Amino acid sequence: MNTYLSVWKLRFVSGLQYRTAAIAGMATQLFFGFVFIMVYVAFYAHSSAQPSMSLEQLATYIWLQQIFLAFVMLWFRDNEIFNLITSGNIAYELCRPCGIYSFWYAKLLAQRLASAILRCVPILLVAFLLPKPYNLTMPPTATTFALFVVTLLLGLAVNIAISMFIYISVFWTMSPVGSTLVIAVIGEFLAGMIIPVPLMPSWMQAITYALPFRWTADFPFRVYSGQIPQSEAVWGILIQFVWLAALILFGRWCLKRALRQVVVQGG
């Protein structure tokens, strides 16, 4: 355990050094946050049907996406791991006195946390200071906020477990492009990152509820706004734990099979 904590700490401190990239990322996230909300404001103004989310809840949903983008985006990638696999330097990883899955998981967790810490506070302040209906609202109660923190962290853990399959697939494909695009595009759509899940057709919502992606973003964001009741949020936390355990166990099994077939050529 000390090994993985040390890896996490080193990668976390290293990630905090990329302040210029964080500033550029903040500007981009603020821009897209404004654009998405303005689009939905126009749709809501000309819609005759009663929406399943209020405009205030939707604005909060979108700002939470931008604030915690490093937590929920599936296209976040560590090129160092890809290079280890494709170049044959995975042999050095096999010599480490620790499990590769846990080692990589700790690295990815630290990178996402460092990226989120650098960007979230400035975006949070701007989003709170905006006028209605463009602003980020406070959660209804302190209990709701506590449940949001728990669901967000569990969603982060589930997201990393899903992203691990991108790296594992490279053992067979030898290219990260295909698996990254497929998992990222499908996963982010089903997680509500393109269209919030409550605004999807009922048949599409049924698909999202059967897969793990919505538990990484849609679920914690709706818990924050109070659209998901506290009793339902508690049951959702249990489901997040189940998905996390299943994804980690299956990921470890896939990685073990992949390592059995690894062939490192050269001296």
Automatic annotation (TrEMBL):
<feature type="transmembrane region" description="Helical">
    <location>
        <begin position="142"/>
        <end position="168"/>
    </location>
</feature>
<feature type="transmembrane region" description="Helical">
    <location>
        <begin position="180"/>
        <end position="199"/>
    </location>
</feature>
<keyword id="KW-0812">Transmembrane</keyword>
<feature type="transmembrane region" description="Helical">
    <location>
        <begin position="21"/>
        <end position="46"/>
    </location>
</feature>
<keyword id="KW-1133">Transmembrane helix</keyword>
<feature type="transmembrane region" description="Helical">
    <location>
        <begin position="58"/>
        <end position="76"/>
    </location>
</feature>
<feature type="transmembrane region" description="Helical">
    <location>
        <begin position="233"/>
        <end position="255"/>
    </location>
</feature>
<keyword id="KW-0472">Membrane</keyword>
<feature type="transmembrane region" description="Helical">
    <location>
        <begin position="113"/>
        <end position="130"/>
    </location>
</feature>
<protein>
    <submittedName>
        <fullName>ABC transporter permease</fullName>
    </submittedName>
</protein>
